[in-house]
Amino acid sequence: MKNLKNLIIEKTRKIITEKGVDCPTITLNSEFLNDLPMDSLDLATLIVSLEISTGLDPFRDGFKTFHTVDELINLYTEANS
Amino acid sequence: MKHVIVTGGSKGLGLAIVKYLLSENYTVSTCSRERNSAIDELLSQYSTFQWFQVEIGNAEQTAEFVRKACTWANEAKLWGVINNAGIAKEGILATFPNIETDSLLQINLHGAIYLAREALRIFLSQNSAGRIINISSIIGSRGYTGLAAYSASKAGLDGLTRALARENGRRNITVNSIAPGYLDTEMSSTLSDKKREQIIRRTPMHRLGHVDDITPLVGFLLSDGASFITGQTITIDGGITN
Questions:
Q1: Domains of chain B, each with CATH number or no CATH
Q2: Res. B185: pLDDT tops 90
Q3: Which InterPro entries is this protein grouped with (chain A) (predicted)?
Q4: Does B46 participate in catalysis according to the annotation?
């Protein structure tokens, strides 16, 4: 859980900084598309990157809604269980 | 070196595209259901060429193909994919078996969507620009008696092109369709002599197209000069749809 949380936050920060913009503080309640300077392609990049790093794909069986960092961590935690 | 993946590269237009790109110093991987003498010849000629056995239209096999091809290409980063693989089956729709429609759409349309998806995942993870070229057909926009499912599949490809161009343009990923007219390939060999003559008569250039009429546009769309062209369906048909 802790590793997944760190991994998701670290990769999110990397994607934002690679765009050349300042990364705000990322909290568990941060909404990817509202509170962070990310668009839908950045979010897709994050998901692909997480799949490469973890081998996990929580979306294999269909769409699952998430908005916040915490909700995404939960999806990966479930996929890992 | 830039790596380009071409589907259906063992014969016809696909083979011509593979040869053209190899001559232009791209690293090229292709796939088909069966390996043939043309593939053997290219494998013996070029260390920058690789072939994989793949059933296009199978999502798992497509993902595996792209993964293996990119591993093989090593330092040559994926730059482009050419969705060329396709089949044509003829028959009036009223009596065209649904199972034939399903298999045609699976290969011509689903296969292209699966490959585009895999390529986009790599472009995004590499944070790199890239090119997707879909080999469509004038039949996708004009229709043709007896080719309803094929026509639908090619129209679908053009829609895919437009949507993906919008979706990915901000990452410098371009997506275009090439719509050839009637080409003198194995796929057109089933045309009756009368039909061939009719097509030639109606074509301002007074001949069927040749694969070499198409390959230079593939090369151009992959080049830096085409970086602002996206979402287009470009027709090469000797003027028949003019």
A1: 2-236 (3.40.50.720)
A2: no
A3: ACP-like_sf
A4: no
DSSP letters spanning B168-215: HGGGTEEEEEEEE-SBSSGGGTTS-HHHHHHHHHHSTTSS-B-HHHHH
- Tell me whether residues A41 and B167 touch, CB distance under 8 A: yes
Hey, is B77 helix, strand or coil?
strand
From residue B165, give the alpha-carbon distance in Å to each of B77, B109, B170, B173: 21, 17, 9, 7
A2-80: CATH, from 3.30.70.20, 2.60.120.260, 3.30.930.10, 1.10.1200.10: 1.10.1200.10
Distance CA B8, CA B17 (A): 10
pLDDT at A2: 53
Terminal-residue alpha carbon distance, chain B:
38
Contact (Cβ atoms closer than 8 angstroms) between residue A66 and residue A72: yes
ipTM: 0.87
Distance CA(B220)–CA(B234), nearest Å, equals 12
pLDDT at B193: 87
Query: Which residues of chain B are within 8 Å of residue A45 when distances are taken between CB atoms?
Result: 124-125, 127
